[in-house]
Amino acid sequence: MSDKFNIEIITPSQTILKSQVTEVTLPSYEGQMGILKDHIPLITFLRPGLVIIKGQDEKKYYVEEGTVEFSNNNLLILTSTAKNLQDLSKSLINDLIQQSQNKLKEIKLTDKEQYIESYKVETLKTINL
Amino acid sequence: MPSLDDLKKRIKSVKSTQKITKAMKMVAAAKLRKAQESAEKGRPYSQKMQNIILNLTKSINDPQNAPKLLVGTGEDKKYLCVVLTADRGLCGGFNSNICKLAKSHFKKILKAEKVLKIITVGSKGYDQIRRDFGKYVIKKFSFKEKKQITFSEANIVGNEIISLFSQNEFDKCIIFYNNFKNVITQIPQAQQIIPADAKNIKENDDENFSYEFEPEEDEILEDLLPKNISTQIFKALLENAASEQGSRMTAMDNATRNAGDLVDKLTINYNRSRQASITKELIEIISGAESL
Q1: Do residue B88 and residue B100 come from a single domain?
Q2: CB neighbours of B64 closer than 8 A, spacing ≥ 6?
Q3: Is any Cβ of chain A less than 8 angstroms from the Cβ of B211?
Q4: How many domains are there within chain B?
Q5: Which chain A residues touch B if contact means CB-CB below 8 Å?
Q6: B282 in the same domain as B206
């Protein structure tokens, strides 16, 4: 029996990825989460982070937000910001870090916003090209 | 009977009109391919989003405390209608089809003595609705200067709807747009987005499982429902953009063909009257010669 399940990453403008994989690690809202075949049905949110997909080869995507649904061995990631790590450039990452850091300086941020922005900075800093 | 000169001018003007419609048709065809592609690519997102919402709805055990965006306010008095149309004309029945459908809904709502509020997206829709229902329009959007519709435009409209809802301005929200079926058929549609209409979606009864939620169910719904509204608006905008180009293409194709027919007819007329005048002159000469 194969230990693979389906994954789909969809953005409003296109379907980014549709394939069969063995393991996916998600930056879920309350912590990193690994998903293997026959996981129980699940709905969760993403915080900024990396989606790591292991199948025949390893793929990494940077996401800022999104919704994840897992049911019947179908993993569905709906996000508006998924970017393949290979498509990101150093300058773009620096820009994004700068933006988030500026935002963090604002006083009227809610706890939730602060949480998300700080994760964004942290993730972006760990990306090494 | 128009003179030969008049006919000549007429033929020339019809020919130049034909050139314009032909050019517009080709432009629309080029834009259509792009718009159609993005509409088709955008479909899965909104469909999957609807599915998640539907699955969530099924697993709610306490409908009383469910978010109002999902189950409605429990009342049925105030209606918000969002009419999505194009910003440009010359696209056949595209705009008027949406408006016709919307107007028939408006009449029904008013007849039932409910409160009606209208938001128009796209200047052409506003122009048509203003005549009869101008006093009900509370807000109008236009994305004329935008070349490509992105999610942020949909978000602007979505946020407006949500803020109106949270101020208790309406109980039900219906959007009107054209569904792109193929190049020659676009179907005007009315879709209820608040409260989420579960009837429209295919029921998968056998797929009934309880989800694990992280964070809590309410929090997920609170975040997901506003997003879903923007997503539905975005889908409608994309479908509309594709429909507009498709509709314009067929309209301009027809116009080009009609202009061709008209040119043929006028040319026959022109030749006939030219021939008539030659014959007349000949008869005059012959009868003049005979009388000598």
Answers
A1: yes
A2: none
A3: yes
A4: 2
A5: 8, 10-15, 28-30, 33, 40-45, 67, 69, 71-72, 76, 78, 80
A6: no
Structure tokens at A67: 């919704």
Residues A62 and A117 in one domain: no
Asked if residue B29 is part of any domain, the answer here is: no
**Each residue's pLDDT tens digit, B108-147:** 999 988 889 999 998 888 888 888 888 899 988 888 888 7
Q: If you measure CA to CA, which chain B residue comes closest to A41? A: B211
Name the residue range of residue A54's domain.
5-84
The pTM (predicted TM-score) of the whole model is 0.83
Phi, psi of B31 (to 5 degrees): -70, -35
Same domain, A80 and A97: no
| Burial of B197: CB neighbours in 10 Å, binned 0-12, 13-18, 19+ | middle
| Pure H helices in chain A | 90-105, 111-126
Q: How many domains does chain A have?
A: 2
Same domain, B103 and B237: yes
Same-domain pairing of A75 and A95: no
Q: What angle do CA B137, B176, A67 make, to 5 degrees?
A: 110
| Closest CB to B211 among A13, A30, A42 | A42
Residues A60 and A118 in one domain: no
> pLDDT by residue (tens digit) across B142-201?
888 887 788 888 888 988 998 898 888 888 889 999 988 888 888 998 988 887 765 544
* Nearest-angstrom CA–CA distance, B49 and A128: 33
Asked if the structure places residue B116 within a domain, the reply is: yes
Question: Is residue A42 domain-shared with residue A96, that is, in the same domain?
Answer: no
Residue B48 is nearest to which of A44, A72, A78, comparing CB atoms? Answer: A78
Exposure letters A31-70 (e unless 16+ CB within 10 A, then b) = eebebeeebebbbbbbbbbbbbbeeeeebebbbbbbbbbb
For position B242, which CATH number holds?
3.40.1380.10
Q: What is the CATH classification number for the domain harbouring B284?
A: 1.10.287.80
CB-based contact, B34 to chain A, within 8 Å = no
User: To 10 degrees, what angle do helices A111-126 and A90-105 make?
Assistant: 150
Q: Do B214 and A28 touch (CB under 8 A)?
A: yes
CA distance B270 to B166: 68
Instruction: Tell me how far the alpha carbon of residue B230 is from its chain's centroid.
Output: 17
CATH number for position A34: 2.60.15.10
How confident is residue A1, by pLDDT bands cut at 50, 70 and 90? low
User: How confident is the model at residue B60, as a pLDDT?
Assistant: 67
A50 close to B35: Cβ distance less than 8 angstroms = no
